[in-house]
Amino acid sequence: MTEALIHKTAENSGDTAAATRPVESSAAPVPAGVPLSSGDVEAAVHAIADRSRHAARRMAMANRAWKDRALRAVGTALQESTESILTANAMDVAAGKANGTSAAMLDRLTLTETRIAGLVAALENLANLPDPVGNVVRGQTLPNGLRLRQVNVPMGVVAAIYEARPNVTVDIAGLALKSGNAVILRGGSAAQATNEVLVRVLREALDSVGLPADAVQTVDQYGRAGANVLMKARGRVDVLIPRGGRELIQTVVTNSAVPVIETGEGNVHIFIDESASEDMAVEILLNAKTQRPSVCNTVETLLVHSGSRVLPAVAAALRKAGVRLHTDERTRAALPASIESEPATDEDWATEYMDLDLAVAMVDSLDEAVSHIRTWSTGHTEAILTNDLSNAERFIAEVDSAAVIVNASTRFTDGGELGLGAEVGISTQKLHARGPMGLTELTTTKWIVQGEGQVRG
């Protein structure tokens, strides 16, 4: 048996001791104090992508047991490296404060022991999920005897461009590894110190279990120039996923030559219809707005039926929690004078606040609520609070967003909460992937046709 065949057999069996493998190369370093030309950056990023392509071929052959062992190794390494991760993160947060970074962005940037523990738990959840690779989507035997199967296979090289979200570094890497892909990360300058530590931890953990360290790489060291090259690396990178604010996403969608799965901002709505109970409305609105206001599944606009009697209690609870209300004239007229608010404008209906602000409008019907949502929604998540089954069914049918929720908080639009283990992002497009993107969304399909000498007539 040749060395190459021994190596392949060891990979498929999950026996890392039997595999004789070369030492994986790391990303080329940037010489200290030496500016790189555009040609140098292009060559360096292309080299990273080529190493990712090689790593992706090896990842595609790894079985579930091997990939799950890698995920658990990453979790253990994160726990053991908590102190160094938090030290690096404190540097990034301090720099962000000095640069005037918004409170919402600082919240996304910040890691704590609890949040790191959450990342470890998400990796364990991923390890416990079925392997999407090899799943048979459909199959049949044709009248001529050909046996057909359409199966899930890895994308190959997945790139992600995101900003100030070091948790995404771990989430995307974990999902990519479980689905048999290699990943190239561009996490942005705001979290560069944190991401540098996280990527090192990820690579060392992969190497420790015999998988290629180059299955996780970063182009952060090459700044925006590196991100621009990554966006143009069609043929080297199979798919690119942007995750962040509108400006970042639109920049990637507009400039990328690599196919993009577009994630979107969350101008999220909740409609309280005439039949909704006060207790449920108060509890859900407080959770949807105040639990973590800086994330994309937080409610940004509340629509209240004019026949409902819950508005004063809901508004009072929100104000007590520190929420600033931006209200239309009818809402202000219906509120007690003791509840402060400010006049809403069209800008408020269009805004993803990511803060303790909420736009509130009064509507006279479900049709009017749906019309408002169609006008201002970004297609992320919308919810209805109701005790009327027909209204719930109409809302589900008529609202065209990635997630539609009945009588629950919008905060459930999340890969971990929906049982996906984690998420790459929440897609608001309609091609291939929509809503929280988990393991299956990082695969494509392959047709397998097996015959016994058939020819086409």
Structure description:
- The protein has 457 residues and is of the alpha/beta class.
- Helix content is 43%, strand content 17%.
- The protein has a 7-stranded parallel β-sheet with strand order 10-9-11-8-7-12-13, sandwiched between helices.
- A hairpin with a 7-residue loop joins strand 14 and strand 15 (435-436).
- Helix 2 (38-61) packs across helix 9 (223-231) and helix 11 runs parallel beside helix 12.
- Residues 1-34 have low confidence and may be disordered.
SSE blueprint and pairings:
Elements: H1 3-13, H2 38-61, H3 64-80, H4 82-98, H5 103-109, H6 113-128, E1 136-141, E2 147-154, E3 157-162, H7 166-178, E4 182-186, H8 192-208, E5 216-218, H9 223-231, E6 239-243, H10 246-255, E7 268-272, H11 278-290, E8 299-305, H12 311-320, E9 324-327, H13 329-334, E10 342-343, H14 346-349, E11 357-363, H15 366-376, E12 381-385, H16 389-398, E13 403-406, E14 426-427, E15 435-436, E16 443-450
Parallel strand pairs: 3-4, 3-6, 4-5, 7-8, 7-12, 8-11, 9-10, 9-11, 12-13
Antiparallel strand pairs: 1-2, 2-16, 14-15
Region (Disordered): 1-36
Keywords: Amino-acid biosynthesis, Cytoplasm, NADP, Oxidoreductase, Proline biosynthesis
Pfam families: Aldedh
Features of this protein?
globular, alpha/beta, 457 residues, disordered N terminus
Helix proportion = 40-55%
As laid out across the biggest beta sheet, the strand order is 10-9-11-8-7-12-13
With helices defined by DSSP (H or I, 4 residues minimum), what is the helix count?
16
**What is the gyration radius calculated from CA atoms?**
24 Å
Distance between the termini: 41 Å
- Proportion of residues in extended strands: 15-25%
> How would you state the average pLDDT, rounded?
90
Biggest sheet overview: 7 strands, parallel
Structural class: alpha/beta
The outline comes out as globular
Structure summary, number of beta strands? 16
Function: Catalyzes the NADPH-dependent reduction of L-glutamate 5-phosphate into L-glutamate 5-semialdehyde and phosphate. The product spontaneously undergoes cyclization to form 1-pyrroline-5-carboxylate.
Protein name: Gamma-glutamyl phosphate reductase
Region (Disordered): 1-36
Catalytic activity: L-glutamate 5-semialdehyde + phosphate + NADP(+) = L-glutamyl 5-phosphate + NADPH + H(+)
